[in-house]
């Protein structure tokens, strides 16, 4: 059984999913791949893990860096899991490029080479938006490349974290 919970936010309605103990998804309504990893048996219910996610989001959307993270367990391939783990290390208020993520992936995976394009595919399929900060990934020239939730939402999230200059 999977559970979902809806949360209003400054970037739109959010749908959060859980296995009952961990957050497995967080989507901005209408984003690309919206609810893609959800199974068929889904129940809308408020669980303690959703309250923890709401607390984190309240702190985040107030313009402060949360000092905790709810338990996360996104569904994805081992490659995607590795990339999402690297995303979680991007500091609040900072950005990195797909190429830099590819270099970090190689360091963390015993020299296993991957392209920035492959990294981009994994970043784009991140099922836990905002909590796993894929919005902090930009093009190598500083451009704001795609974001499943929309470039306007990416800009809003980056501005919330103190970023002010963007190339679109």
Q: Which key phrases capture this entry?
A:
168 residues, alpha/beta, Double Stranded RNA Binding Domain, Arc Repressor Mutant, subunit A, 2 domains, 4-stranded mixed beta sheet, two-stranded parallel sheet, 5 helices, 6 strands, 32% helix, globular
Describe the structure.
The structure is a single chain. The protein has 168 residues and is of the alpha/beta class. It has two domains: 2-61, Double Stranded RNA Binding Domain, CATH 3.30.160; 78-160, Orthogonal Bundle (Arc Repressor Mutant, subunit A). Helices cover 32% and strands 14% of the residues. The chain has five helices and six strands; from the N terminus they run E-E-E-E-H-H-E-H-H-E-H. Strands 3-2-1-4 form a four-stranded mixed beta sheet, covered by helices on one side. A two-stranded parallel sheet has the order 5-6. A hairpin with a 6-residue loop joins strand 1 and strand 2. Helix 3 crosses helix 4 (116-124). The termini are far apart. The relative contact order is 0.17.
Mean pLDDT score, rounded?
90
Secondary-structure-derived class: alpha/beta
* Largest sheet strand order: 3-2-1-4
Q: Mind telling me the C-alpha Rg?
A: 15 Å
Distance between the termini: 41 Å
State the fourth-level CATH superfamily of the largest domain. Answer: Winged helix-like DNA-binding domain superfamily/Winged helix DNA-binding domain
The CATH level-2 architecture of the largest domain is identified as Orthogonal Bundle
The number of strands is 6
Q: How many helices does DSSP assign?
A: 5
SSE order and pairing:
Blueprint: E1 2-7, E2 14-18, E3 23-28, E4 42-44, H1 48-61, H2 78-87, E5 96-97, H3 98-108, H4 116-124, E6 137-138, H5 151-160
Parallel strand pairs: 1-4, 5-6
Antiparallel strand pairs: 1-2, 2-3
Helix pairs in contact: 3-4
